[in-house]
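Closing statement on the DGJ sub-project.
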Amino acid sequence: MHHDSTVIHLRNGGTSVIIDLASAALPAIVYWGEDQGDLSGDDLDGLVLGSLPQRVSGGLDRPARLSVLPQESTGWQGTPGLSGSRNGLFFSPALTLTEISSTSSTLTAHATDPVSRLALRADLAVDSAGVLSQTLTVTNTGDDHYDLDDLCVTLPLPASATEILDTTGRHLRERTPQRHAFTIGRHQRDSRKGRPGADSTLLLAAGTPGFGFETGLVHAVHLAWSGNHRLAAEKLVTGSAFLQAGELFAPGEIRLAPGASYSAPTVIASWGDGLNDLSARIHTRLRARDNHPASARPVTLNTWEAVYFDHDLDRLTQLADAAARVGVERYVLDDGWFRGRRDDTAGLGDWYVDGDVWPDGLSPLIDRVTALGMQFGLWVEPEMVNPDSDLARSHPDWLLQAAGRLPVEGRQQQVLDLSHPDAYAYILERLDAILTEYPTIGYLKWDHNRDLVEAGSTRSGAAAIHDNVLALYTLLDELKARHPGLEIESCASGGARVDLGILEHTDRIWTSDCIDPIERLTIQKYTGLVVPYELMGAHISGPHSHSTGRRHDLSLRAGVALFGHLGIEWDIAALTDDEYTELTGWIELYKANRALFHTGTSVHADHADPAVDLRGVVAADRASAVFVFTLASASTFYPVGMLRFPGLDDDRRYTVRLVNRDSTGLGNGQSPLAWAEEPVTVTGRTLRTIGLQGPVLFPEHLAVFDITSV
Ligand code: DGJ
């Protein structure tokens, strides 16, 4: 921090953020990116002066500089940072800085507009991982209400950013990447589904042309919020380019009473030389949290694809016995255990153990599971209600709706209004009662299987998505406070509620309902831009994928699931001896390497051949790594050629060993790869820049490499 200057230099974790206090009404970030070193006050003043916007013919006399909250009142002609009105008036705020405080890595700015009667607080911080976070709060200082339409964080991009990357998706194929030219105009991703949604992007990234995982300057934002939101990248004719992120409101949803404030969700922003670097900062930030799961992530068996709604104690007990035999550590009973839930058309809301299916309650199964040394987990979907349930029949006013009509159903479901105090109290009481009756339940799989539409409160008549997200966060925290050690998974049909807001209150996400390993390569790669492997559920399916109809060898199913919090979703009660031996081997491999996978740096190699997928995790001390090369489809090339392994220490020597020679398809009449017969030792620089000849694999097969420094 430099008090002798009107420029503030925040530095931490290899990142610099340089903020000018003088050239705009509000603080202006003039630089965000690689650490600029220890700059003097004069250097900083020079940097600001040298980058002032320039007046041009046909333009305004005082060109606006992009600030933390760009305003039309300063001449800003791009999308503003705040929109709203007071009964249709005061549409253009003119907030000016009143107070600033900062440390070497944080800045808090206060601003007011006495005419529009608004106050703003902006909190910026650069953490030790080099991630920039920003939170905005706006307060109505007037004596009538203020309708807030939009409040978003705005961050500048360098001129080199000419390409955008975001993700789209749908159920069973979440996080599909898409790229666009970043031209003049606005690329905006809205989520209007009451949850982020299967198609929501975790990051909106902009960088140099063709930026990849290994190289290319790239900046990105994420919004830590589990409801409607908007991420955008915008470029103006002035050359000003920026990212914006904020919550998306329904009309009238945020009406601020006199004195009331709205705090926007925190925006997480990262940059990198390549996406590996950008993601590593976010992963490091998450791992530094006090509430980050620290214990070894237990091998999980989830009953869903094994038995679906067939809740038969004998069958589930046999599954538990088989699970314990192969090394499972957590057994999760999925959908179907509660009253009236024989299929997905009825029962949601009636959170009592079904006496017909479970005449002695859940104890017989739970006791067996715990006696076998496994933890017991239970599926719930607390925000959802089937119209065919006692809850819906007795409390129709607890359902989210608009103008007296119920929304279009999704999976035969309506949505409970958790912002209704009685509905909230009911759900809290039910979940608490179950966790109290069965105190060994250590894990809830928290599902949420429909998008919200017309989500209004019957009490106020107004849209209530914002209030429901906050009520959900409170509910999750309350349950964890009452049941210390309880872990919760954010499921949402797999991948439809993945964000760093929900991950402040839960312990992992269910990445996708699709566990076909070929699909999972893409889904996990792009989910991993934000979510580290220890928070990402990855299960080994049965031989036949229930969501794509494809069949795969166990080695592919298991090798891909290593990159995550590993589980099994397969009826393993009747495995052949060979399957049992092979599955046990993969679980042992996971257990032997999970500390590495869950604390190391995730890397993806850029490769010109779309059939080649090479990903790895490098230990924090770079003494070891595991890489997996998957031939996702038949390659044009035969053999595939050289594979480069990024992320290791250039100056160390490493031994590379192929772990799963028997399951790769190697030796298929081809001349065997010399180094696959015996380990090879080379330098980290060789691995990064030259690489090793990739083994010949069958398509849809993979090779696991163990890499250790010598
Ligand atoms: C969707 C989830 O993603 C599945 O894993 C399963 O729990 C079903 N819901 C149950 O209804």
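The first strand starts at residue 7 and ends at 12. With this model delivered, the sub-project is considered complete and its resources will be redirected to Aim 3.
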